[in-house]
Amino acid sequence: MEATELLVAQHPALEPEIRAFYGRWPEMLNGALDGTVEIFKALKESGRYKIYALTNWSDETFPVALDMYPFFSWFDGVLVSGREKLRKPHHAFYQLLLDRFDIDPAHAIFIDDNLRNVKAAEDFGIESIHFTSPEALSTVLKTKHIL
Known about the structure:
Order of helices and strands: HHHHEHEHHEHEH
Number of strands: 4
CATH superfamily of the largest domain: HAD superfamily/HAD-like
Number of helices: 9
Strand order of the largest sheet: 1-2
Strand content: 5-15%
Structural class: mainly alpha
Low-confidence stretches: none
Shape: globular
CATH architecture of the largest domain: 3-Layer(aba) Sandwich
Helix content: 40-55%
């Protein structure tokens, strides 16, 4: 990976650790949050919503997640930071999501576990939910009559 070689050149004393980061990537994924996958499945099966992913993963590591977790293929569209050369919470990344998938921010909800990313989405007028747990998300979505 290009990033690995660049970092090794910059920090040769840390080469084993740097190579382990991407070389052992699947081990670092801590598994799916089953409750969240159940919520995702219910929303998808309802047929009422388009669901998109905005991820800060690299272009090299996202395919690993696709292979490990089939539910990633359920999204109606995905923007990957490493592919787009943008990342959350930069406004250009949110704008790209809105433009590419023709999303009206007034009719969208953004969910993220990083409060900084939530605040950035709110700057676009996108109603947002700060994810803290599957149970809390389920409660909020039920309160909003979405789930």
